[in-house]
Amino acid sequence: MLQPNSLMNISFRLSEISTHITEQIKNQNEQFQVIYTERQKTLEKLQKQIEKMNHVISRVCDKQPPQRIDQIQILKNQQYKYELQMEEDLELPCYRNRIFQIKLRLVQNEKTIINANNLLVELQIWTYDKIPKKLTHNNKNQSIFKGCQQAIIKKGYGSLNRIQIKEVSSHFPKGVFMMIILPIDDGAVIGDETKYQIKKEWIKPLIISDVSIKAKKFSDRHNPYYAKSDGTINILEQE
């Protein structure tokens, strides 16, 4: 049999072991808690850095120029029932601040259409940039137009009278402009096309290609070429 002293020694030893194990568990728990706390702090720091990066990215994206759309291609690719044409060929080049005129008619399959509603059309100047730009003002923020820029197509006909352009085309890509004449108002037409109440969306704009605007006219330097009624250039005349 074990002696009382031996039992006391064993009991004391077991108590020491238990205390030691408890201390170890406590220490490990404290270490785990420290590690957990440090990881939480690290995650919070990372989260803040991510938020800052997202904010910077957002600001950079906001400053990016919007992608510009080629409006000319959109106009060309649409389907139309009618189109605007010139009544007669336009002699080019035009000259800065010199008055000229464009007579218009509304056609379908080369036949003049007598529209019942008044159609408002507008002359616009576009550049030959990679993505064409509508030109309205010069570098001094002055309008490039003087005189007539809008006209009414009434009963199939209309005329842009006393057109004046105050900017030469040589300062721009290709050295020429596109002149576009397009409907901008139809009087809010609804419904019956058979009465020739014609919506502006049904009308193909007139795009006059390669319009040269020169500074001055000298008789010995004036070499005319012509834009045909559909706006295309008569190459034979140009040569």
Task: Give an account of the 3D structure.
The chain is of the alpha+beta class and 239 residues long. The chain has two domains: 1-64; 71-238, Immunoglobulin-like (Sandwich). A hairpin with a 2-residue loop joins β4 (100-108) and β5 (111-112). The protein has helices at 4-63, 71-77, 235-238; strands spanning 82-86, 90-92, 94-95, 100-108, 111-112, 119-126, 134-135, 145-147, 150-153, 157-165, 177-185, 203-204, 206-211, 213-214, 225-227, 233-234. The strands form four sheets. Strands 1, 4, 5, 8, 10 and 12 form a six-stranded mixed sheet that branches. Strands 6, 7, 9, 11 and 13 form a five-stranded antiparallel sheet that branches. Helices cover 30% and strands 30% of the residues. The chain contains three helices and 16 strands.
Main features:
239 residues; alpha+beta; Immunoglobulin-like; 6-stranded mixed β-sheet; 5-stranded antiparallel β-sheet; 3 helices; 16 strands; coiled coil
